[in-house]
Write a structure and sequence with these properties.
The complex is a heterotrimer. Chain A has one domain. Chain A is built from 21 helices and no strands. Chain C is mainly alpha-helical. Chain C is 68% helix and 4% strand. In chain C, helix 1 packs antiparallel against helix 2 and helix 2 packs parallel to helix 5. Classes of the chains: A mainly alpha, B alpha/beta, C mainly alpha. The complex binds sodium ion (2 copies). Chain C: It is a multi-pass membrane protein.
């Protein structure tokens, strides 16, 4: 199996698509095992697509792509500006509110970073905020979407680990909102130090606020309906994805009237490509995981970690530290795919709640999107604002601190995470 | 069939064999313990020459996939049932039909019947599947739902999870419900999210998978006495020294009987345990009505003659 | 020949996108019909069937459009010449891998013919299984065409922005 791991890293460094790097190195395991029939890889690749649970993934991707086309974004933008424009570094605060509300409909940190950077980036530079601060604001705010439901990372974790996606969604709410609030505090502190001024001087009237909020009601309703539907068993996670698709189409066609047949077909085509890219990775990684299972490596690994300590807190900290390290080099989708099945038995063995663990794991891995040397969101914002990684961290270290507080808070106060799911779904 | 001439009785055998044995049950079930016992005794008797590694919770893959792998000669084994074997030798599925046998003793007789022997040979020669043992009896299956089931009518319109093979589906259909194919591991979440209305399971499955959290009633329909089959690759079996083959089969039968008896003994305490967890055990089930309805499955799948032939050979009814 | 391939690509996109649309409708229909007490038992099975086809055809489309995720920290720092050769090497390895998956996928499609699809009588699992070799065949063609283009164009003409990989969804 050592050769297989070496081959995997070598292929990845050679710039081979990760899906193939994983599949081909996994295939090498089968070549070392003369007793294993060579048809197994083909079978494993197929079986991944035959799971009722994994059906949730393409449907949520489809729904996310549709929601981006329906005209919700610029309405949320107007509302966010009303809510936060009077604060110091007003545009940065607007960005945080927008990220949180947008998080209720989108599911991808990378997509959000790109979108927020384009929408608010030029304005922030114009206001004279430093490039590093702008980059940091956009980058950290994009983490919020992975926690506020829906989030594709939680769907992946839940589907692979057979953990209730409804509970995971509900569990992400508080950490997501907590992040938003702490980020706003961090911006306020930075703004005072740097002397950034508010966007507007006067507050908005109640009437303005009400009309704009009503216009955005469909966006707010979406995550709520999703959790309620899952809670009352109106639909399964896969069906929730399909329901999200229907919701997006309905709002786009009947409420905002901006959604056309051409847009639908285009979204369908974009989604096919996205599904191809994600599911090919999931499918081919099954070849690799089979080798791990065959050699009983996850058990060995679990015994090793549990052997260090049976204390849930310590085990969680070890895992988080490890995730932060691997997250520096690889990005979250691949890591969730590879590690969920390995880490869940460990969490179960030491008695960590799997929903709690999922939130911590996905949150930690998402931070990897911002850490050098390989961090996609970091690359995106640094290229948008034309700044260096050092500049970004120098000017936004209060935001980094806020992130750490949220992660540590989630680890040591499970109630932050479990309070909402326990309230909605009942205690487990 | 193997090229080794030296005796296998030496202290440390020259060639070591490993069998990877997969099953879909959780590691808390008696069968898992049974498989571990089987492995332990085989290892002892072969001086470590044949090792069995047991993978619980379908870690190596879903049952249907594993059987395909077995057919192609992998050193893999699987705990399965006659329903799935029926995809290869259709008549064998009769053992999974409603109300086919009633006790472990009846199951023990099956192996010696001429017809059953012919089936085993066909599985080996035509499909590469070797049955090691079928003394593994999981017990009588009942309905786990959120409403009491007393007559076949109570099952009307309910989506009941079954494994994805025709005999299961027909059996469930014949006693009134709509079958839904779903892996066992997905039952809890599907129940929780109401994707299905219930499942047909033995007592132990309900505690093992914590289904009392998502279902209120356990109705004792007794509709299937689930016989499990331990199958491995014929090619791998033939590659073993003859004495290993014998040990493997003997110990499998022995461990199976033990595990089956233990499961039988467990039913009473499990009943109590589930009642304490808040489940209602429904025992006043209209057995005659269910038995009559069950006939439908034999008719649809044209298994009536096969059943009558087996009954004749074993002197039943 | 080129005409024919363009036709195949168009058909591939059509099948994949309508498979996605139909599977979405099926999943919604299953949920709705269940809640009104008239479950469509085969809907989810049919949806996973379409899913398999959507995945393997979509995989090829993503590959053709260079949308597969990869890690480019190291490769992007190399001189263009080495980038060029690395790409050819990568695609060549992928070709061998896909060829082996096709061969074994075909074999598997044959051996699973007795297995029924999710317990629906008379529907063989083979119909799902052939999605693998067929999808891999399309990807194999894509990989070979990529190699041909790389060799024909040479590294001198490689545009500057060519080295970056696409990013993931999360
Ligand atoms: Na989100
Ligand atoms: Na990183």
């Amino acid at each position: 199996m050592t050769e297989v791991f070496i081959a995997f890293f070598l292929f990845m460094l050679m710039g081979m698509p990760v899906a193939f790097a994983i599949g081909i190195s996994g295939m090498m395991f089968f070549m070392q095992q003369p007793t294993l029939p060579s048809t197994i890889p083909a079978q494993l690749v197929l079986t991944q697509t035959q799971s009722f649970m994994l059906l949730a993934i393409p449907l949520f991707v489809f729904a996310g792509n549709l929601l981006n086309e329906t005209g919700i974004t610029h309405r949320l933008m107007r509302l966010s500006s009303m809510l936060a424009g009077h604060l110091r570094a007003g545009l940065a605060q607007v960005n945080m509110v927008l990220a949180a509300t947008l998080g209720g409909i989108t599911s991808s940190a990378i997509a959000d970073a790109t979108m927020l950077g384009r929408v608010l980036g030029p304005g922030m530079l114009e206001k004279g905020y430093s490039r590093g601060f702008c980059a940091g604001v956009i980058a950290f705010s994009s983490l919020i979407t992975t926690m506020i439901p829906p989030g594709i990372g939680l769907v992946l974790y839940g589907s692979i680990g057979e953990v209730s996606i409804g509970r995971l969604f509900a569990a992400g709410l508080v950490p997501g909102l907590l992040m938003t609030v702490l980020y706003m505090v961090a911006i306020e502190i930075t703004a005072r130090k740097q002397g950034y001024e508010p966007e507007r001087t006067e507050r908005i009237t109640l009437k303005e606020l009400v009309t704009t909020s009503l216009d955005c009601i469909w966006a707010f309703l979406f995550p709520v309906l999703l959790i309620v539907g899952l809670r009352f068993g109106l639909f399964t996670p896969s069906e929730a994805g399909a329901f999200a698709v229907a919701y997006a189409v309905t709002i786009g066609v009947f409420v905002y009237r901006e959604f056309t047949w051409e847009k639908f077909v285009r979204t369908l085509e974009d989604t096919v490509v996205d599904i191809g890219m994600v599911m090919l990775l999931i499918s081919l990684s099954a070849i690799f995981s089979y080798g791990l299972t065959w050699e009983q490596l996850p058990q060995a690994f679990a015994e090793l970690i549990v052997g260090i300590s049976g204390d849930p807190w310590l085990v969680m900290l070890i895992i988080v530290a490890m995730l932060l390290v691997v997250g520096m080099f690889m990005d979250s989708t691949v890591l969730i795919l590879l590690l969920t099945a390995i880490l869940i038995p460990i969490a179960r063995a030491v008695g960590i709640d799997l929903v709690h663990f999922g939130i911590v794991m996905v949150l930690t891995l998402t931070i990897g999107l911002l850490t050098p040397p390989v961090g996609v969101v970091m690359f995106i914002v640094c290229s948008i604002f034309n700044c260096s990684i050092v500049e970004m961290y120098r000017d936004s270290w209060w935001l980094l601190l806020a992130t750490l507080i949220v992660v540590l808070g989630c680890i040591f106060f499970p109630q932050i995470v479990l309070f909402v799911p326990d309230m909605i779904f009942g205690k487990q | 069939a193997c090229g080794k001439t030296e005796t296998a009785k030496t202290k440390s055998p020259k060639q070591k064999y490993v069998l990877k044995f997969n099953h879909v049950l959780s590691d808390s079930e008696p069968f898992h313990k049974g498989f571990l016992n089987w492995g332990k005794r085989v290892k002892e008797r072969t001086n470590g020459g044949l090792e069995i590694q047991v993978f619980h919770s379908a870690q190596l893959g879903v049952e249907e996939d594993i059987i395909e792998q077995i057919r192609q000669g992998a050193n893999i084994g699987q705990n399965t049932d006659s329903a799935r074997l029926g995809m290869y030798v259709p008549a064998i599925a009769v053992m999974n039909a409603p109300y086919f046998v009633d006790s472990i003793d009846e199951v023990a007789k099956l192996r010696e019947l001429a017809t059953v022997k012919a089936w085993q040979k066909e599985l080996e020669d035509k499909h590469g599947i070797k049955i090691l043992s079928f003394t593994w009896v999981q017990g009588l299956r009942h309905m786990v739902t959120n409403k009491p089931i007393k007559t076949p009518d109570d099952l009307k319109g309910l989506r009941i999870r079954t494994p994805g093979v025709p005999i299961w589906q027909e059996s469930i259909r014949s006693i009134g419900a709509s079958p839904v194919a779903l892996p066992f591991g997905e039952v809890y979440i599907a129940m929780e999210q109401k994707a299905i209305d219930g499942a047909d399971l033995v007592y132990r499955n309900v505690t093992g998978a914590k289904l009392f959290e998502v279902a209120k009633y356990m109705s004792e329909t007794n509709h299937i006495l689930l016989i499990n089959f331990e199958v491995i690759s014929k090619k791998f079996f033939d590659s073993l020294p003859p004495e290993y083959q014998q040990i493997l089969v003997e110990e499998c039968d022995k461990a199976g009987l033990e595990a089956s008896r233990e499961m039988e003994k467990e039913v009473e305490p499990l009943r109590k345990q589930l009642a304490e967890k808040g489940m209602t055990i429904v025992q006043d089930v209209d057995a005659a009505a269910f038995r009559k309805a069950g006939e439908g499955a034999y008719n649809v799948l044209k298994l009536t003659e096969v059943r009558d032939q087996l009954y004749k050979e074993m002197g039943k009814k | 020949m080129r005409r024919f391939y363009q036709y195949v690509c168009a058909a591939e996109m059509h099948i994949a996108k309508w498979a996605l649309a139909v599977l979405t409708v099926l999943v919604i229909a299953a949920a709705v019909m269940r809640s009104i007490g008239m479950p469509i038992v085969w809907a989810i099975d049919a949806a996973t069937f379409l899913f398999a086809w959507c995945v393997f055809l979509g995989g090829d489309i993503a590959m053709r459009n260079d949308r597969l995720v990869c890690i480019d920290v190291l490769t992007c720092r190399l001189p263009k010449k080495y980038q060029h050769y690395l790409k050819i090497i990568n695609y060549s390895i992928i070709v061998v891998f896909l060829a082996s998956l096709i061969a074994h996928g075909v074999k598997l499609a044959y051996t699973t013919r007795l297995r029924t699809f999710q317990g629906i009588p008379d529907v063989s699992y083979t119909w799902v299984t052939i999605a693998v070799p067929l999808g891999c065949l399309l990807m194999l063609i894509t990989a070979i065409l990529k190699i041909r283009n790389l060799i024909q164009n040479g590294y001198e003409n490689m545009p500057d922005g060519e080295c970056g990989c696409p990013k993931e969804l999360m």
